Protein: Sugar-binding protein
Organism: Rhizobium loti
Amino acid sequence: MAGSEKRPRRTKFQSDQDELKLRAAYLYYVEGLTQEQVAQHLDISRIKALRLLAATREDGTVQITINSQAESLIRLQRNLEKHLGLTEAIVVPASSQDEESVAAVVGHATGRYISEQVTNGLSIGVGWGATLQVCMRSLIWREVDDMTVISLLGGLTHATAHNPSAVAWRFAEFYRTELYQITAPVFVPDRELADALWKQDDLKQLYERARAVDIALLSVGDVGTQASIFRRGILNWSDAKSLKDAGAVGDVLCHFVDADGNVLDHPVNHRAMAINPADISRVPKVIISSGGLRKIHAIRAGIAATNAKLLITDVAAAQALLELPPLEQAS
């Protein structure tokens, strides 16, 4: 037609290059071959394979999309990291806000994550809670040498499956490694006894070990009627009321903290045979594993109290945390 532009005719070389590019893209993006395998399959150099794959992205031959559900989770995680000053947030969907359902999914994700962190020579401090109990059932075995587990809390004189020190014991047993325990009840009758116990050489040494761990794995509790620490009779309901009246929003390692993560000057805290959360704020990696809408204030306070850089939680809690004031952490 008159006035129409004539497209340049494609050469056989250009057609061959396009076909090669498409084949490379299919092998790499659809079949999942490595760049080296693509090069071998097409009988070209690895550099040429790399250039072909780069070209498919640049000219639109390959357009990458992310599953919408996965994309929304990633966006939620990134927003949470910025909002709470975290290095990493892991957010998992929970089918309901039932405590067992949330603990199951968050605990499972925690077990998978912490299993990847287990290495020779690692020292890890371990807290307690329903989520961490589930975490212990999701660990992946690997053989490690010279690893040390430190329980960050005392125990109960009447031992049960919910004994605060049991989580660390199970972790150490699973990986067949050394365990250091606080050989005292998690709460003693008065401050004087707690002070005297902490002066014992073995407990002083354990405290120093706890402050020097490579990783601290914790959960948090709230100050409500469903909180394990009250429901299981470790502390009584009058303690709960007194702590609430003093401004407590939750407990971190059996120390009750206010909304900004400050450990309260309260008689209950002075009786605790557990590591003070402020004393692990210099640990290189502090992980808080906790979920559920009722715990969001405790989670935020726990991050502030410990300078935690990694949070594992559920979607509903993550979304609710974004509605709370942002948190700036110490570097």
